[in-house]
Predict the structure.
Amino acid sequence: MGKKKKKQVVVRPWCWYCERDFEDEKVLIQHQKAKHFKCPHCSKKLNTAGGMVVHVAQVHKETITVVPNAIRGRESTDVEIFGMEGIPPEDVIAHQASLEVESGHVVKKLRTDSIDGSDLSEGKQLTQHQAMMQNPSNAYSYGTYPGYPAQQTASLMPHQYSQFYQRPGVPPTQPYSQAYPYRPSGPSGTPPAAAGWRPPVGGGPAAASYGNMPPYNPSGANPQTAFNGMQSYGRPATPTTSVTSPVDGTYPQYVTTTSPQAAYQQTGTAMAMSNGVGMDDSGAAISIEQGQSVAGQQQQGQQQQTQKKPTATVLVYSDNEVSPEEKRASLEKYRISFGASHIIAPSSHQHSRPF
Amino acid sequence: MINSEQPKDYRIPDPPGDGISALAFSPVADYLAVSSWDTSVRIYEVNAAAGAAYGKALYKHDGAALCCAWSKDGSKLVSGGTDKAGRLFDLATQQPMQIAQHEAPIKTIKWVDNQPNNLVCTGSWDKTVKYWDTRTPNPVLSIDVPDRVYTMDLVSPLLVIGTADRHIVIYNIANPGTPYKTQPSPLKYQTRVISCFVNATGYAIGSIEGRVGIQYLDDKDGHSSFSFKCHREGSNVYSVNAISFHPLHGTFSTAGSDGTFNFWDKDSKQRLKGFSNIGSPISATTFNRNGTFFAYAAAYDWSKGYQSFQQNQNIVYLHGVKEDDVKPRPAKKR
């Protein structure tokens, strides 16, 4: 276990604009000059965002308001960043927290101890963890959970914490297994917590159904999710899930709030793909999905599972089998000079209703 | 349909009485052909100088007209419809005549303009694509495709056919009997529209899931194929109904059920211009021959089924294209 202890998270120099980290601060500064402080008109590399603004204003007589290639929420040219200097302290903390998660410190243990297998992604576990850390007083309420003695409530909290730092291999103690009052089995047999957290994969008609839990709906809650017409392909904001007291002694309610912190922590791994942030009407970059080729589809499917969409998407026209024109043509009024069913009925079409 | 407002673009008078299925500008004159679900195919003359348009000709199918296309010399218009017939309208004689016949509605029709004898190519829901000499009643060639033909585009020598179940069949028109390539769609949802690049090196494909794929034919360019999302509003994902390439610049437009259209530059991967919601799905688009006009049809596309069907929403707008909105732009420095 000595080796484990050595695995302390070392914070490498990292770029505030895109959450990339580097071997050395020199490299970081080079990166910032090349990626974020380069004049879009003449490719001159400036030292700071402010320097770039002044350069663009004086040399090219144009104004620039966003830092190129910066993740959403960090495009401001007003923040004076040079290397690691000038990073807002809250972002430093957020970055550190994300590193802890990525290093597997927290996650692995949670995963091995997870009751219903390990279908929680890192982000979910992180946010769950955060919800507890930030809000231990009201994160969970146990008193009314059926079968759980109320007098144990006081001693429960340490258990809750300890699970995150438990060594792997140490079997959970008995009270521990009951320390998941927020994830009782629903009537359907599915853990409602999972139903509440997991966004529907791939949209489609099923997207509207969330089982019997309150819908997961972070839409619009976070400015990071407000994409302009097109959605960046980067890993979107992850809502923090916190749990309030049970209602009427039945299942607890799940309340989702969005935390910018969580959002930032998620961006690091996906930034390479989301170049297209900061779009406006003209000159908007197309965010590219190279993984969209046929070969990449499976990979993308996996991404969709582990990745939270900013909003659950709903196909306005959702019948993948039959085109809208075929449906329209089967309408009575368009069967002008033929008998019924001159439209070939597609055999693969299992929907019985014509529209 | 929030934020919808009537576009300031010119409305063509005397529009069809039902949904607009296709638009086509003549390659030699400012004639705009409009095929409609009201069975008619209309030809309007667009007077650019006076900023006016008026009806020039009209003929009818026995069922809804689903597609139309001009011959290269602009003297003839062909169209196809749910009456399973392909019809040819000769501007000189002003007479329509039937030139093609399928077992099911003809969804798409194109001229094979590099052939000396004026071949017409039709794609149908009967899972065939047929070539027709306009002077003979029988097809010159009939090819079977994997499923119902939904869309097809031809820029010689490239013919790309998109069918139901996401099949893509690519032909070299010089060798129409054998597919050059058969592949599944790069997009995961139903193919809505395919449009070839003006230089025939690839094609753009739009799906019902608000996404456009840019596909290059050449394998060595394969890595440059990509796709992007568009025509989405909040959590709603709209179908991409139309993709039209600018004839000179090679940039392209997309239009969708959401009622917006955009101009894009595929090479620099940028949106050149976005337009606000017109309050109705856009069912068809086209550029005129030199790309100075962009015509788009505000008409119901059946994306929300019969319930949302309103008879009165059938308008063809003419948008004067600003050069800066369609000129390719250098890629943004990253």
